[in-house]
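Let's practice the habit of predicting before peeking. Look at the sequence and jot down your guess about where helices and strands might fall. Then scroll down.
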Amino acid sequence: MIKPALLILAAGMGSRYGGLKQLDGVGPNGETIMDYSVYDAVSAGFGKIVFVVRRFFREDFERRVREKYGNLIEIAFVEQELDLIPEGFTLNPMREKPWGTGHAVLVAHKVIDTPFAVINADDYYGRNSFAVIADYLTNSVGKSGSFSMVGFCTGNTLSESGSVSRGVCTVDKDGLLTSVEEHHSIKRDGDTITGENSSGKIVLIDQNSPVSMNMWGFTPDLFDEGWRLFSNFLTQNGDDMKSEFYIPFVVNKLIEEKYAQCRVLHTPDLWFGVTFKDDRVSVIERLELLHKESFYPSPLFRAQVATD
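Done guessing? Here is the structure:
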């Protein structure tokens, strides 16, 4: 049986947090948030994990990853660099900002040929989330344009340390995604949740409204279609030093073109992550409780104890 792959976006440096938070130990035995994603992905039946990194920290990152679970599952590494653009385009030497999450996915095209999921390295998604998307991807083998997204309830994704940005999803009666609209300054205000929509208007958001936490599922044909859209993006925005090519843009465009459908998968899991530096304490407390309740073994990976 063909097993799905997991693509972990680990190239971001987390400017609001300060430092390489992908390697920050927050579990009771020094586990990173990413370690829990790997553990849950292996348990859910993923067969390969690919890490998107930057060249300047790859050596240290790869060494730590291979020490922890290099013998547990097949792993690979790809680098997201500014000069990885289609032929016929020239990189503006003034450009410093990475091209965005959509580009981060595309750079893995040479090492993934199965249905695959995409997650952020610094977000905790929960065991059920990996299980539902692994099942959907396993049933997508041989298909084209069969996309999916794990939709988290808005109320399960907020930070106690400040407002957040989320992609609020619109879903049709068949459970298919019709659009993702980025909302900023989302926060809880008493019994309600408010946010600023793409038009700059403050709106109420239902706590059960599904939002994207960048947990996507794709069939491998996404790569060809994605590079096509990235070429169009560069033609229109290549000289804009701050322009970014995001995953939701790719998904929205391929749905609009009627090339793909995106199934919204539901999860009761509570998302958490270190969006702000002050979030670290609550993350540590939540993970410690999960270990105490035997939801996870302690330590998470036995190999970690032998190599630390």
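How did you do? The domain at 5-303 is CATH 3.90.550.10 (Spore Coat Polysaccharide Biosynthesis Protein SpsA; Chain A).
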